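Researcher: Quick one. two chains, 296 residues in total.
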Amino acid sequence: MNKPLLALALVFGIATVASVQAQTPAAASPAPAINDAQIAHIAYTAGVIDIAAAKQALQKSHNKDVRAFAEEMARDHAAVNEQALALVKKLGVTPQDNPTSQSLSKNAAAELKTLAALKGSAFDKAYVDNEVAYHKAVNGALRSTLIPSAQNAELKSLLETGLKLFQSHQAHAEHLAQSLN
Amino acid sequence: MLRMTILLAGLLALAGGIAPASASSTAKPPATAAHRMHVIVIDQMQYGPMPTDVRAGDIIEWTNHDILEHSATARDGHFDVDLKPGTSGRITATAGTFAFFCKFHPTMTGTVVVK
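Model:
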């Protein structure tokens, strides 16, 4: 199980971006640890990852509640990513790949592989437990790093809306995880 | 011509008077002294404050300010109002206490008391 790794990867990835930024010459005002193009990429990647996990769950799970949760994840993250794409297009920003996005994708691929080997209630429990951990990690990153670092007001607002949404997802996942125990 | 206008106006008034509350309409209901409209705003994955002093026959309207689709779905199956982003939906209140939730986000819940 790579829940702690996932959380660490998220924090480490952001720290890596910050480190790269810190090596640039000092400016009159301190540059943010990550720029808006990188933030947009991270947020979008986080959504894509959860949609992929949801699609896997919809293929493998027969549990009504787990399937309803997965449908919620696929629908909501697609809607948020659609908004994010519309916003970056409007702002003329090209999302920029970065170590955080890469770490997220790498860990998510490993998690998908782990879950693919499970069946039945073992899969359901592992999927939902991972969703709890994943939303905790993403919400923590949004709260402590991504939202404070966002420079554009509209991007910051979308991230804040996303945080509320993902906190609701986390609550749903935690409730579901309890019911599966 | 005048007769035709009066006839048309009468038909429109009749249609408006008997039309059931629409789940997708955003038009304001006719303002009458007897029945009031109570709006519950959905924002940031939450139902706003629940209206108080709701009486049977009043209109309850949900307005979705979120970027996601929501619903106001009665626990007892009495109503199920779908709310696309940026839209409103309404019901005509009947006496009782009714609990509702969002069928897409079950952590969103609310309860309205109708006298």
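Helices of chain A lie at 3-22, 36-60, 64-91, 99-116, 120-149, 153-180.
Researcher: Thanks, that's what I needed.
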